[in-house]
Amino acid sequence: MIDRLLGLSSWSLQRRESAAAYMYISPWIIGFFLFTLVPMAASLYFSFTDYNIIDSPVWVGLKNYVDLLDDASFWQSLKVTLSFAMLALPGTLVFGLFLAILLNQDIPFVKLWRTLYFLPSVLTGVAVVLLWVVIFNPQVGVINNLLKLFGLKGPGWLHDPDWALLSLVIMSLWGVGQTMIIYLAGLQSVPTDMYDAAKVDGANMLRRFRNITLPMMSPVIFYNLIIGLIATFQYFTQAYIASGSVGDEIGGPVRSTLFYNIYLYQSGFKFFEMGYASALAWVLFVIILVLTVLVFKSSPLWVHYEGELRGRS
Amino acid sequence: MKTIKRYPLFLFTVLVVLALLVSPAIAQDPVTVTIFVGLGTGTSPEQFEPQMALQERFNASHDDLQIEFFIVPHDTSEDQLTTMIAGGNPPDLVGPNGISTIALFLDNWADITPFIEADMFDTSDFYEASLGLNAYAHVNTGLPLGLFPSFIFYNVDIFDAEGVEYPPADFMDTSWTYDALRERAMLLTLDGDGNNATSPDFDPGNIVQWGYDDSWTSAREKIAPWGSDRVGSPTNEDYTVAIANNEHWVRGLQWYSDGIHVDHFIPGVDGIAAYESAGIGTPLDGGLIGMFHSHTWYLTELGFDGIDFDVEIAPVPFNPVGTRVATMHADNFTIPETSQNKEAAWEVMKWLTSPEQIVDVCLIYGCIPARMSVAEEFRAALEANFPDINYDVIFESINYLDDPNHESWTPQWGRMEDAMALAESKVITGENTDAQAVLDEANDTIQALLDEYWASQ
Q1: What residues contact A242, with CB distance under 8 A and at least 6 apart?
Q2: What pLDDT score was predicted for residue A198?
């Protein structure tokens, strides 16, 4: 009927199917062009300009990219982001796997435990960050008051430049339920007869974990690593809210939480240097791309796919 | 054939004549001046209705001119304004704007000097010092609307409990210096065992009450009163040389640093966290601060009804060079350079700041009217809301404002403020308590920003 209305009835079945497919995906394609590709192309152009949003952009060539090299805040933001990635990413991957293994055991109320551990990852955003700000409060926060019970004086957490980043790393574990649930799904697909055979062969728990669980889970670890890597380099909201709660300095104290995206935001929307911010965005894109490619390139060395034969595609 | 050709010509002629007849009527339609509110105050729900009433009053009294308040959330107001200007749809009037907001967008405001000259507009009724707050060599951004002088709020009960003399309200009393403030503040600072900060038994790790706090001011505001020739500006007059490490600012920041880390009468980051936890939102509320430096707008922030102690106000102290600088916040309305209705906006600006309207406008926005002639009228209105406050301190403080102001424009204003905020953060957190070193570093950064700016001009 629709074919007739659109005058497609004379088309071959294959052409009609193709047309239907394109029609079905067209909302996404249009959205991608309008809201992703065009803005990306525009930001690439702006990255070569001096653009303050209000006046017309002025072409400056590579100046914004060259200026980055002499910008202490750029290097600081890169350092903060990389430090966070090196602490938070392994933390989330390891802790998530640890929880998943625990919750994959045959224990009473396992469904309840799984729900309880997953629940925090459902609650995200500003409200959770503000909750953590109170938890980290050096005077009335839960953590320092617990430490006080043992006669220990807790640090200043978000108020202390030496502890602020670590506070955010701890805070990032709040969302570990997401990683855990993916691991859990992976664990449940590991054939139990492998473990049974290993037990018969006398393999202890550690050995079973190293020789069965880890290889079988490596594609899932790989997936979580890629997703986590990208998310870590796009870290913004938590740091923005948390640093804003302890003073006027964005990314404070003393720039200890000046994440790359916070500096990007600051350049674009506080300093009104949209051209420079665009250059920052493209450098970030390249960094994430290079790291992702490196992880992909390294994957044949440590990711094991069931049924895969090495050396054959 | 000839008739057919002539008919459209005849029709066209008729239409042109009709258009010419109608156009004067169209030209007489009132011009609507859009007032963008959001960059400063004016966005609280309780301010909506009074602004609408103001709009109705203006519109009822003008046939050729109408105003329309366009109120946006404060958090997104900067983005919204820049988008409107960039999109060729600027508002006609923007405000109330603080000095920092005007500095942030300085290149985008129209100069009102030609309007003042064309109208021979009399500015003598405005506080003289206020006229310079938002006027730069190349642009006068707007008529002064409201002022927010600063002074010391103090908790009378804490002074009484410790038997410490109140800060003097007399502006002529030259004994009221930063040293005197420090001495009294140390006597008000107590540890958990009740020892004050001058006692050898005082435990700085267990402070429960602080003598002085200045945490709601920016880096530049903390050191602007210390006697620099350029007062609140980190550059020389023509903005080519950074002077952020001048001896006066260094002395001021060192006094502040020592106040936190050596004498302990100013709360550092831990202290701020403590009193914020104890309070109900503002530093003085918690009853843990003896003296607090802030502006008139803090009168409403404090919320006198919710506190169970007496509050009084006193002038800021004299600095080591023997002058007094009471830092000032100020509001005005500005006309975007790209506005299509600049002359109409100028008329509205004059109306809003006229002696007949300025009291009502300032009551909406919580500022002291910038016109001297309405001081008594406004004082009476204030006293109704906040009785038992020494209003002489408020009005007298206007005469000691900081010029150049601590929020005044410099090239690359946002990055300069960021450099100063970093310096302040280092001192407050104890990352570096040496004011000279911290300000030397900030000065280098600011000089680099200035050099870059002038190289690009």
Answers
A1: A129, A132, A133, A158, A164, A167, A168, A171, A257
A2: 92
Name chain B contacts of A270, Cβ cutoff 8 Å: 414, 418
Matching fold, domains B30-146+330-400 and B149-328+409-455? yes
Cβ contact B431–A153 (<8 Å)? no
**A97-139 pLDDT per residue, tens:** 999 999 998 889 999 999 999 998 888 778 899 889 889 988 8
- The CB-side HSE value for B457 (13 A sphere, CA atoms) comes to 10
**Statement: B30-146+330-400 belongs to CATH 3.40.190.10:** yes
Distance in angstroms (rounded) separating the CA atoms of residues A230 and A285: 10
CA of B357 to nearest chain A CA: how many angstroms apart? 33
Pairing of strands B31-37, B93-97: parallel
CA–CA distance, B325 with B312 (Å, rounded to integer): 19
pLDDT of B192: 93
Contact list, A247 vs chain B (CB under 8 Å): 269, 425, 428
Closest residue to A156, CB basis, from B86, B269, B415: B269
Measure CB to CB from residue B273 to each of A153, A159, A272 and give the nearest one.
Answer: A159
Average pLDDT over residues B54-62: 95
Task: Give DSSP secondary structure letters for A262-283.
Answer: HHHHIIIIIS--HHHHHHHHHH
Domains of chain A plus CATH, in order, are 2-35 (no CATH), 63-122+175-302 (1.10.3720.10)
Task: Please state which CATH class domain B149-328+409-455 belongs to.
Answer: alpha beta
**Cβ separation of B277 and A272 shorter than 8 Å?**
no
User: Any idea where the domains of chain B sit in the sequence?
Assistant: 30-146+330-400, 149-328+409-455
Which residue of chain B has the CA closest to A54?
Answer: B86
Task: Compare CB distances from B273 to A50, A139, A271 and report the shortest one's residue.
Answer: A139
Specify the pLDDT at position A138: 86
Confidence of residue B285 (pLDDT cuts 50, 70, 90): confident
Residue A255 forms contact with B (CB below 8 Å): yes
pLDDT at B1: 44
How far is A92 from A215, CA to CA, in rounded Å? 19
Q: Are residues A50 and B456, on separate chains, in Cβ contact within 8 Å?
A: yes
Q: Considering CB atoms only, which of A54, A140, A247 is closest to B86?
A: A54
